Amino acid sequence: MKVIWLIPLLPGIGAAVTGLVGIRFFSKAQTALVACGSMTLAAFLSIYAFIQLLALPSEARVYDVVVASWIPAMPLETAGGMGAFAVDWAFRLDPLSGMMILVVSGIGLLIHVYSTSYMHGESAAGYARFFCYLNLFCFFMLTLVLGANLLVMFVGWEGVGLCSYLLIGFWYHKQSATDAGKKAFLVNRIGDWGFVLGIFLVFFTFGTIDFHEVMVSAAAMPIEATEFGVISLICLLLFVGATGKSAQIPLHIWLPDAMEGPTPVSALIHAATMVTAGVYMVCRNAVLFTHAPMVMTIVAIIGALTALMAASIGLLQTDIKRVLAYSTVSQLGYMFMATGVGAFGAAAFHLMTHAFFKALLFLGSGSVIHAMDDEQDMRRMGGLKMYMPVTFVTMLVGTLAIAGIPPFAGFFSKDEILFQTFLHNRALWVVAVVTAGMTAFYMFRLMAMTFYGEYRGPAWEDAADHGGAERPGIDTENEVDRSRGHGAWHGPHESPPPVTGPLMVLAVGAIVAGFVGIPAALGGGNAIEHFLEPSFTAGVGPAVGEASEVVAIESAAIHSNSHATELGLMVLSILVALGGVALAHRLYLKRPELAEAWRARWTGVHRLLLNKYYVDELYHGTVVRGTMSGGRGLWRFDGRVVDGAVNGSSWLTIVASWCSGLFDRYVVDGAVNLVGWSASESSFSLRRIQTGLIQNYALIMLFGVFVFVSMYLLIS
Amino acid sequence: MSNTAEFPLLSLILFTPLVGAIVLLFVRRQSTDMIRWIANVVAGIGFFVSLPLWFWYEPRGTQWQFIERLPWIPSIGADYFLGVDGFSALLVLLTTMMGSIAILSSWTAITERVKEYYVFLLLLQTGMIGAFVALDSLLFFLFWEVMLVPMYFLIGIWGSDRRLYSAIKFFLFTLVGSVVMLLGILAIYFEHQAVTGVYSFDITRFHELSLPVDLQWWVFLALFLGFAVKVPMFPFHTWLPDAHTDAPTAGSVILAAVLLKMGTYGFIRFSLPILPEATVEFVPMIISLSIIGIIYGALVALAQRDWKRLVAYSSVSHMGLVMLGMFALTPVGITGSLIQQFNHGISTGALFLIVGIVYERRHTREISEYGGLSKVMPVYAVIFLIMTLSSIGLPTLNGFIGEILILQGVFVVNKMWAAVAASGIVLGAAYMLWLYQRTMFGNVDNPKNESLPDLNMREVATFVPLLVLAVWIGLYPAPFLRRLESSVTHVMSRVNSVYAPRNVEVGVSGLLMRGQ
């Protein structure tokens, strides 16, 4: 497989063609053909590459390809003496990236197909622009997962951030959309600050930024169990990057706003792939993280807190996409919690199943939104089950999957995480179980408000206020003002095949994707985790660290001894999920007034959740306003003090030259004039003695001689 | 000195614009189109004749190439001595390219005193090329001063608003700096005579001197003033926003792309290799000023309401990064600093062209006057976006290569410096994306913007080379970095002779932050 670099390049070519030629000249069909065609090729190539990978013996499953030198070698000192800073355009296919390219290219292709229908309302140029961005995203995402060193990964990392920015702000005439895009980019940049410093520190510590070489070197170093050493710092910095990209506390605020983008974008970028890049990055550096237990604890706690916080916000959201957005944040928190307790395989497994069911849910919500003529508020939906059966059934599958009901995909991956967390830390496990219950609740609340009950759609539009008041959780502030199309709309309807097709494929995925990871306790082989295992260790070769071996042995021992515990936990989590479902059923279908009563009793909590814990307001009041007023203050400083000094010195020069001008005029010139004046004045007075009469002159002469002689006589 | 050129390539590059300027003097002032054609053709030829610098330059060859040497003022030892290394060859190429772009961009923007305008632009071109190719410090100083006059008139005559204030400010700032700089050069000159007994302004000879440390200290300060004004470093930067804002578009482009590089070029050519001990001594001061410049420039840019002034302050921030990389005194940092100078020329030059295009159409630079332009000017919006991304250092574009090399080079010396400087990059994204949002996104609220024409072919042509270079350097910078290698090695060998003991310390201290 020397051509794995083609996998990202194909959608890259697609982006170049649609961008450079398509926007001007392509019809929508041509654009769709180029975009979907390039993705199809990339998907087939990914499958082919994956099969090739599987054919290798499990310890040797890796393909390394160096396409070209990117930054040629330069001497640079490292902690261990003089090293060389060099970066190649290097790609690596191993089990972890193999799984990821399947997810990215597969789900990417489905979402491309879906978008051909979903974005049909755009002009041909807008359509081409959309697919250009979408293809470009796949290019960068595949680069991210296939990159063999931190800097190539960073290229993809920043690139997907750019595409996210462009796609969130795709409808650029909307202020809210461009605001959201900018916010996403900037919050990510804050994370990238940590990521970049992490890369620098990796180079400084290991003299290389190649993942494999770093792993091998790190494996040979001691585990920093008691002191916060270099590896801990590296991991912390990298994790800062991950919190940005994967929307974890404290940088989670951008993801819900990102829902301003078109729904296929939310599905692909803000649910299935890009936001999981942080989890992927942590898994990629698993050896580093296992050497930094303190940071692992931080990761686990942040993950658990994020999961809980986002799920609790999701309980009350009324915008269908926002519910899903918070759900994504929450599920990402789950994945980080898993990595934090060392269950990298479980995290990657959940990443994969989540990609299926969350993409499914988002695409389903897009289908609903289209059917409802761009309505996103669930309070104006209801009873859609009968109008759009395919969307309903597929979304139900997705909901069951995310809620953790067996045998759907989410059950297996989530349970693996819960089990691993239970072994590691009971408190985190409790948080995770509570979150699981909330997840089941808000997802079935979503289903209930959307598909069950009475239809509350635009036919009742005029009486929206009255109709809405009956529902719990109404908050007019929260309503999104949106421009609706004024075309003929004949009520909710099922979406066309390009939309339902991907939904059905994803639904199948959401059912079967979990089967690759059936745990041993249920008689499965947990195939996926064994498959991924080599990516989380330093791999074959003599330099395998004892540390990771110890961890592996330990976890194996735990696995074999605790099947009973595992089964018990499974039953418990199923019960919790069912409890959540039952509560949603009771509150939103059977006794809506109960919800109203609860809301009245817990107004404070209600408001806190509705306002998302006021984090946005907090940041806006401190960071954003601080920076802006700092900028303005410095600008005044620049004008008054720095430039003031310049202008002041020029003013001083002017004053000084004016003074010297005065001096010149009055003193120097004055002296000159004085001489002239006194000469002329004295000559004027002396003129009187110039009478011209000889007698006078003779008299004066005589007088002078007399004086002269008398003085002479006196002195001598 | 064996690599003397058989063909006086550098003289040809140097005097092509001057000859063009002289030819223009004989053209009737009323035939403006003829003047424009001649100026453009001359600039094009100027670029064309400089291309051999790319193809014939031997990255693995001797340090100075294309050498030409004739006696100039033998009595004081001043020679007409030209030559380039990889870095100055790139800067010459940048100059000839940006010069032709600037001249092409002025076609419709300048309607008054057309003849004088192009004469000054071409004169400026010769001055800038001369400063980059001169290996004789008196000759360097001559060209340094030659640049000043045309730029002064360009701002003062064809500028906008407070053009006279800005022009005089620019002139005085630079002049004060350069007078002190001349004192510094003369000090080296006399010291050289005292040591070797030969009167010479030869820079390559200066590079072999080892001056007494206390003299170095004073000379460094003198040169620092001259160069820091040009860069410009905080707090000598306030001429820049004014000059940029009031200069005509072509003037701003040249100013940002080339003139600012004079300062950094001076540090690389004079301060670092001639005064290594003083350089090391001044590292803390210069690093501090650079880091202040990065953050300060970015924050002030955030507060701007004037599009052009915003870009000008972004220059202050970016040039701070360039200085930071240089004074990290590591090969990677210096390489990053050199390539970033080239990158800054491309992306900031392009950003000034971009402002100029809407300024020509609307005659205002107020950001609030714009909005929703991507609807009426889609091609323009795409180019602006790419250049914005290049400016904020997005990977696969040129700015990233420079930033990552600089920061990595700084990081191994001091982690705090790198951490603080890297935060400037977050701010960089903030002000640029906000600018982009305010001007390009949203609805076209201002009726005056509704019928703005998109770029014509001439305007697109000014951007094409910049876009190509931005992507090329972003994806495959190796040809550029290879050309810089000998320059970096040379500077490092001079600096290392006094800096080496510190490098060992870095190895031992490991993770500890190494403050100064």
What does this structure look like?
The complex is a heterodimer of chains A (716) and B (516). Chain A has 716 residues and is mainly alpha-helical. Chain A contains 27 helices and two strands. Chain A has a two-stranded antiparallel sheet with strand order 1-2. In chain A, α1 runs antiparallel to α4, α2 runs parallel beside α4 and α5 runs antiparallel to α6. Chain B is mainly alpha-helical and 516 residues long. Chain B has a domain of 233 residues. In chain B, strands 1-2 form a two-stranded antiparallel ribbon. The two termini of chain B are 39 Å apart. Chains A and B meet through β1, α5, α6 and α26 of A and α7, α12, α14, α17 and α18 of B.
What is the fold's blueprint, element by element?
The complex is a heterodimer of chains A (716) and B (516).
Chain A: H1 6-25, H2 28-55, E1 63-78, E2 81-93, H3 95-118, H4 124-146, H5 150-168, H6 175-206, H7 211-219, H8 230-245, H9 254-257, H10 263-272, H11 277-284, H12 286-290, H13 293-314, H14 320-340, H15 344-371, H16 389-403, H17 409-424, H18 426-451, H19 464-469, H20 497-512, H21 527-532, H22 546-561, H23 563-590, H24 592-601, H25 603-610, H26 615-687, H27 694-715
Chain B: H1 9-25, H2 32-50, H3 52-55, E1 65-73, E2 78-84, H4 86-105, H5 114-133, H6 137-158, H7 163-196, H8 203-206, H9 213-230, H10 239-246, H11 249-274, H12 276-302, H13 307-327, H14 331-362, H15 373-376, H16 378-391, H17 398-411, H18 415-440, H19 457-475, H20 478-509
